[in-house]
Amino acid sequence: MKSPEIHFRKAEKEDRDAIWKIIQQSIERRRLDGSSQWQNGYPNLSTVESDIEKKFGYVLTIDDTIAVYVALIFNDEPAYSTIEGAWLTNGEFVVIHRVAVSEQFAGQGLVKKLFDYIEDFVKSEHVSSIKVDTNYDNTAMLKILESKGYTYCGEVYLQGGVRKAFEKVLM
Questions:
Q1: Is the pLDDT of residue 73 over 80?
Q2: Nearest partner of 111 among 142, 144, 139, 137, judged by Cα
């Protein structure tokens, strides 16, 4: 049995509907888990369109099927300028937002794999730090961040809510 072909690439306009479907599945999964994250109309279809247009959107594909979506934003997250706590670094960074896994691929460890691809990509861009936040009740993401060596730095405020903020220094 041949192993699946996995690729990490920028999202394209024609990926929009598949990405939106995956985000809708993730919104529902967060709701079923009893989380308040993503339950207020964000992210939405225009978020996806904006991510693609601004070249923030990336996908992890398995045999050409989109399995995971993520937004990667270089040096720009206004909410991160104010943190209750302290970031590890003050230089250039990449922010990870809107990680969403297709139901078809859920439970296969793909977000951990995604983080490996992101880290390699960020290093290739000569950026030494990744920052990310998540909801207090997103236990799946909290476990992934811990397993991938992210350091808890404090709290930030996004979309009217408090988020746990993490950073990983790559170089």
A1: yes
A2: 144
Domain that holds residue 131: 6-169
Residue 33: pLDDT band by 50, 70, 90 thresholds? confident
Nearest to 18 by CA among 131, 102, 85: 102
Over the stretch 113-151, which tens digit does the pLDDT of each residue have? 999 999 999 999 999 999 999 999 888 899 999 999 999
How many C-beta neighbours within 10 Å does residue 87 have?
Answer: 20
Spatial contact of 63 and 5, defined as CB atoms under 8 Å apart? yes
CATH number at residue 139: 3.40.630.30
Coil vs helix vs strand at 3: coil
**In this structure, what DSSP letter does residue 54 have?**
T
- Indicate whether 89 belongs to any domain: yes
Residue 151 falls inside a structural domain:
yes
